[in-house]
């Protein structure tokens, strides 16, 4: 989807979604050398997320993206992996 550079690191971000995904999705990301990013918009409080991986060649980035998103889809997609309210509250505790 896109690459972003901040604080000297350069990451490839993909799979942007509404809400936060659960720990199963985070585990899927690690299987492919990626991580799950959970973000809360400070102005609106909206929860969003995406996957991130160190930016490599376009071919390697796309390979990881396809693998992660195919696995997420095989597990029922973003809706099936969306964090439930109770799980979210446990993160904040």
List the helices and strands and how they pair.
Blueprint: E1 2-6, E2 9-18, H1 23-31, E3 35-40, E4 47-54, H2 58-74, H3 77-81, H4 85-92
Antiparallel strand pairs: 1-2, 2-4, 3-4
Write a structural description.
- This protein is of the alpha+beta class and about 90 residues long.
- The chain has four helices and four strands.
- It has helices at about 25-30, 60-75, 75-80, 85-90, and strands at about 1-5, 10-20, 35-40, 45-55.
- The protein is globular.
- The relative contact order is 0.23.
- The model has no long low-confidence stretch (mean pLDDT about 85).
Q: Brief description of this entry?
A:
With 93 residues, this protein is α+β, with helices and mostly antiparallel strands. It is built from four helices and four strands.
Q: What's the pLDDT, averaged over the residues?
A: 87
Radius of gyration: 13 Å
Principal-axis shape equals globular
Biggest sheet, strands in spatial order? 1-2-4-3
Percent in helix: 40-55%
What structural class is derived from the secondary structure elements?
alpha+beta
Number of strands: 4
Determine the strand fraction and express it as a percent band. 25-35%
* Main beta-sheet strand count, sense and barrel state: 4 strands, antiparallel
List its salient traits.
93 residues; alpha+beta; Ribosomal Protein S8, Chain: A, domain 1; 4-stranded antiparallel β-sheet; 4 helices; 31% strand; globular
